[in-house]
Amino acid sequence: MDERDLMRGALKATGIVKKGAQLKYGAIAMVIFVVGLVLLGMFFPAGQAGAANCEDTGPGTADASAVSDQAGTQATGTLHEQQVEYAKGIDQAAKKAKLPGRATLIALMTAMQESTMQNLDHGHADSLGLFQQRPSMGWGTKQQIMTPSYAAESFFLGRGTNDGLTDIKGWDKIPLGDAAQKVQKSAHPELYAGHETAMRKLAKDAGINLERDGSTTGGSTSGDTTTPVTSENDNCSVTKPGTGGTGGSAGGKFTDGKQTWDLKNPRSVEEAIAWAKKNSGPGSSASWYQRCLAFTAIVYGWQFSGVNYAIDHYSVVPKSMQHDGDRHPPAGALMYWDTGHRAGHIAVYLGDGKVASNDILRPGYIDVVDAELFETKWGARYIGWTPPVFPRAG
Question: Using CA atoms, how far apart are residues 31 and 250, in angstroms rounded to an integer?
């Protein structure tokens, strides 16, 4: 148990998170308690904490989302008022994902345990934010994690190689604390459950309906016509998706030796491959986190693909262009993988068994790698390839 766990225990014991009337005397006790911790730390230094069990369990293709609040946003007011504000934000993320009130409760219990419901800019190792997510473990950049809406969505839907609540089979049936632990993989799994009563009260103070129905898998429910927010339309300084474009003059022809297709992309295949290589490796910026579909469209000169999810682009391409399971694409083709996440993954084939892809070696960056790496590293399932066509791009 580290110092933050001890402090949370003290908060719970003194009732600071529950009863405002005890705040004054609890705060005095906490000062004495923290001074004691500091002195103990001086005379009995703690050993190096072991790394959390955060092995890669899947690909870095969970859906990116719009950031509606500012990175590092801090709630104001008393501790309770701040907790209420953050609780509302967490619930908004749950409702945006069409999740039930039970998901909100689990997230509130988790945030209270991890950060005392505070948007912390520090923590164990490189842990940050409400849920103490780590940039080094693929939860996002520091700026992203310090954005409450992003952090809450990551907890619910997963991020990078990390499972979210909706990735946990039967999360809505298992004990609340167990569900939180399956996402967080904490060294102290028993601590989450103890926050249920306090978080039910906090939810009531925040006007949150914990009995709200919803989907257990996240995303749109039946009849919902809202366009999902993804890496394609997440305020990344590109034009919003439209109904498609008329194409450019550079496209040229594309052939697999059996069929030939006319392309209407702004860049030719040769230009696109050259652009992808130039903007990969040392030439890559860090702006491509979970933006695989956006990257492939931009490689070919478009501003957006017009499709919300990478895996869906395969079905948008005409059936006659789909090459199911074929592992011999021509250079410039688009390759697809089922990653176990809603978004799936797409990459640009460069030839000689190599593809240009984001996130596979470094979250947020483009690198040239062997095409098989998605299966060996991420455990993804190869779907097939299509010519580089973007029917809804613009």
Answer: 69
- Among the listed residues 292, 286, 270, the one whose alpha carbon sits nearest the alpha carbon of residue 350: 270
pLDDT at 368: 95
**Quick one: which of 347, 360, 353 has its CA closest to 388?**
347
b/e 281-293 (16+ beta carbons within 10 angstroms → b):
eeebeeebbbbbb
Q: Is 52 exposed, middle or buried (0-12, 13-18, 19+ CB in 10 A)?
A: middle
Place of tokens 């940039």: 135
* Closest residue by Cα to residue 275 from 245, 295, 251, 303: 295
The CA-based angle 73-58-155, given to 5 degrees, is: 25
The string of DSSP letters for 43-62 reads HSPPPPPPPP-----S-S-S
- Comparing CA positions, the residue from 230, 225, 389 lying closest to residue 308 is 230
Which tokens hold the place of 173? Answer: 């049936």
Cα(274)–Cα(293) distance, rounded to whole angstroms? 18
- H or E stretch including 335? strand 334-338
Mean pLDDT by 10 residues, the chain (394 residues): 48 45 52 49 36 27 36 77 94 94 96 94 91 91 91 90 90 94 91 93 96 81 35 34 36 83 90 93 87 91 85 90 93 92 90 93 91 91 94 84
**Residues contacting 191, CB < 8 A, separation 6+:** 5, 8, 113, 177
Cross-strand bridge partners of residue 336:
346, 384
Distance of alpha carbon 315 from alpha carbon 321, whole angstroms: 10
With vertex at residue 237, the alpha carbon angle to CA 234 and CA 242, rounded to the nearest 5 degrees, is: 70
Name every residue whose Cβ is closer than 8 Å to that of residue 316 and which is 6 or more positions away in sequence: 307, 391, 392
Q: How far is the C-alpha of 300 from the C-alpha of 296, rounded, in Å?
A: 7
pTM (predicted TM-score): 0.45
Task: Report the C-alpha gap between 255 and 343 in whole angstroms.
Answer: 28
Beta bridge partners, 358, equal: 366
Residue 2 structure tokens: 């580290």
Q: Give yes or no for a contact between 86 and 173, defined as CB atoms under 8 angstroms apart.
A: no
Separation of alpha carbons 102 and 127, rounded Å: 25
Rounded CA separation 339/311 (Å): 9
| SS3 at position 348 | strand
Burial class (CB in 10 A: 0-12, 13-18, 19+), 160: buried
